[in-house]
Amino acid sequence: MAERDGFDRYGGDLRTQLAATGFFRTEKSDSGWRLVTPEGHPFFIVGIAHVDDSALKYAESIDVYRERYGSRSSWISDCVVASLRGWGFNALAWTKQWVSPQMRHSPEWTPDEYRGSGFPYIPHIDFLSFERWNQQAVYKDVFGTDFEDWCDYQARYWCAPLADDPNLVGYAYTARPHWDIARFREVTPSLEGLDDHEALRRVVRRYYQVTHDAIRRYDPDHLIFGDLVEGADTLPTGPSEPPPVVFTEMGEYVDVLSVNWYHPFDIMRESLDAWQRLCDKPVFLSDSAFVAPNDLLTRDDPLFEGGWEKLRVQDEKERGEAYVEMVEKAYASGYVVGWGWCSFMQNKVRKYGLKSRFDEPYECTEIMQDFNSHLYANLDAAVSKRSHRTEGAAR
User: Using CA of residue 125, residue 280, residue 288, residue 18, what is the dihedral sign?
Assistant: First the structure.
């Protein structure tokens, strides 16, 4: 990633020099948690989630793909990386894309594609596909040798080729896992006789221990972001917060708590405060966005059911402004270390993105670019402004 004025080559803040280890790391101080780049500079993730080239390969848009890029490698370098750099984003938060409701996401980029991008990234490892929304979800006995063998394979596939890459921020797992103890009981004989709380505690701890150890067998240095834990009210069926035991048991085995939550920051804040205290880790808001009506997304679209209407804004200008407000408030928490915006390019299922399915950027990117180009100065100014308002209110 090319160095820009005020930023190191990874997007870190050149104004502050900390210990450099050659890899991304976390650091806790009196002022809170932060990420640190391999060169030793504070780093706040402004990343993009869901980056898939099939969004530009519909019958009506494939000519755009062929004429502008012609190959997947050119699309990655000339479309994805060039766009993200131009808008001031600094990471690929993850690349799987929603392509069919209630089914699996598209495939993740390969290790070679991530590494070849030359851009900071957080790939997802498929240790266990037990997403709440996935009708093909799979539950396994996490105490069995089959699960250990599968995790070892996944770690070999991902970590062996990436273990020395400084652009790798860390590894994440499943998006919005459903900790359904009844489903785990069906495949785990050793849970017989245990109450649900103790059974779930053992399953969660074992799951994170095995996945952690598999990664560390092949990569001792990079961060572990764990599963993208689901926030409340993300489904039409109502609240779905994970039980506290998930956070207490994961703390020993992850470096960052990742949270998928499709609400403004103020709505998340109380739960995030509690979860962060339970596991004592920094928080990455791994997947969220604000959405305005467009050619595919009408104001009465079912997408906005079940609490999602809180992400709807009136137009692209408000969309960019909502991005700025979310980043500022998250940063001011003292424990949020980044946000993955959902998503890069609109498709016919996920009807929103920063680009249309014809590869045209939406106007919100102009506001994002302006804010991101002076990211750390803008974040410091926002914290200072909020501090002054709080002091004034106290008087």
Answer: negative
